[in-house]
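Protein Record: Sequence and Backbone Structure Tokens
======================================================
Scope: a single protein chain, as residues and as a discrete description of its fold.
Tokens: labelled as protein backbone structure tokens, with as many entries as the chain has residues.
Position: the record begins directly beneath this header, with no further notes in between.
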Amino acid sequence: MSVTVPFGAPPLGAVLPGGNRRHFQHGPIDLVVEAFGPGHEVGRAYKQAWARFETVLGELVGELPVLRAPLKARGPALKGATARRMAAACRLHGQVFVTPMAAVAGAVADEVLAALVAGRTLEKAYVNDGGDIALHLTPGAAFDAGMVSLATAPSAAGTIAIDHASPVRGIATSGWRGRSLSRGIADSVTVLARNAAEADVAATLIANAVDADHPRIERVPARELDPDSDLGERAVTVAVGVLPDASVIEALAAGAAAAEAMAADGRIVAAHLVLQGGTRTVGALAAALEDRTRPDRTVSRGAGPDQRRRAWTT
């Protein structure tokens, strides 16, 4: 049985312009939820999703000390359903340093989506947690998913069609300019996987692997940016200047190698990596991704200001 700990202000819900999408917000969790189907089914689905959402953050806060610690084979048992989703996604990556927090946004999206669709007759639905997206699709339904490069000026990096036959049910993007800390230098890494939690942790780890040694890369200990960071004293990236082509190629190759290993054993379906105008695409959907993506060459290659970080505090 999970324990719920109160977290500051109560959760907020709103109907977004157009009337069908819902916005759920509580502390650092910010969701856009949309369901498609008969009106009465959609209405009931939203009520179910809201009821589940109201308790998610409190449950996570109640287990934060364990969720911020590296996974251990015989660590304390996690009680909350979302926390268990986080740990399960991270355990796919064996002995690599990772804490369950690497999958938090995707796991929240998966958990709320599961509540949204439970017992309902919907054509399709999604839960978008700040860009980490959980998908529900029935035969004949499809989504066109857009990818965004987190460069100095975020811009579209391409789209991919996902239908019911696709194994993809989760999408996540990570990079050093994003809302979470990164140990690598990727502008963005977008991962397609079986669920959002698995996509989330994989995007984090691949983005960490997109790296090179160059004096124009600036790093600081994670604790200097966030005293409660699960990364502790590990160095995270805070600025990346214009890199020579050789460093961009080296960093993308390192990230692609990590992504290829994950694709080979089924931990991800595909990944799209972007760094200063260079791109690499990996996985079973690589051809489709390549057909519908383009290198991000319209943005300034200099380092931009630090982005807003998620704050998970009690």
